[in-house]
């Protein structure tokens, strides 16, 4: 394991990347160094990479994380060879709609950076505007510093970060931004800050704060999932819970997803929506089976088309609420 730990003096690599939609992914089917990691006994890092590979879609994101991993590994080898290495800036902006994997990727990335010696703890602290902004002068700075302190050694993940600049000049959100900037300067090697949110809002947010873009050199775009990817995600969710979708249920789910994707372009929840549908179907199956005298193991596992009936928003709006 020691061979894969980069010292605090040599682990700084300055990253200036903008992984947009036009960039072609460079990731192969699997990480080429996974076998080497297993041979050298660095299984925690190998498991992080395997977990990342197990995610549906996200090819550009996987390619970027592979680049970071490879870059840090080559930095270690350069140091061993007596060559110079550069500084590191790993603060990031995650742009994407709800349910596209931003938080999941951030959690894996935190553990990976910990295993590579960049972060000391590798945990993820998730916050939003309400967690940072106070009610009076000075309160916001105090709250923000407390969350930065919690994130030391890991990643501070601010969801819907653009909300910090929505209140105008007199809003305390600006105080939170200023406190974050100062913390990035004072503790530049102690934590990673990720700002996340809807693509358009994040772009406006960065444009309205001229000092921010240069502090976040890494921009990752999380695309909406395709219908085939959503179907694969649904099957993974169902199998993980030890259920199965019948053929008719799969057809029903596919039609429902296509309909929702077309009607709710701006607010469609991607994997979150799929999770809501799956969990609703499980509850519907339970109600259906409750009235049966005899229930086999197969009955307990199969989700039928009738279990996937999705009430209209006026019938039951709770089905459309998203999980945090």
Automatic annotation (TrEMBL):
Top-level lineage group: Bacteria
Q: Please name the SMART domains in this protein's record.
A: AAA (SM00382)
Q: Give a yes or no for keyword ATP-binding in this entry.
A: yes
Would the keyword ATP-binding turn up in this protein's UniProt record?
Answer: yes
Q: Where is the AAA+ ATPase domain?
A: 88-226
Q: Which UniProt keywords apply?
A: ATP-binding, Nucleotide-binding
**Molecular function GO labels:** ATP binding; ATP hydrolysis activity
One Pfam short name: AAA
Family named by the database record: Belongs to the CbxX/CfxQ family.
Q: What name does the UniProt record give this protein?
A: Stage V sporulation protein K
**Organism from which the protein derives:** Marinithermofilum abyssi
At the highest ranks, the source species' classification is: Bacteria, Bacillati, Bacillota, Bacilli, Bacillales
Which gene codes for it?
A: spoVK
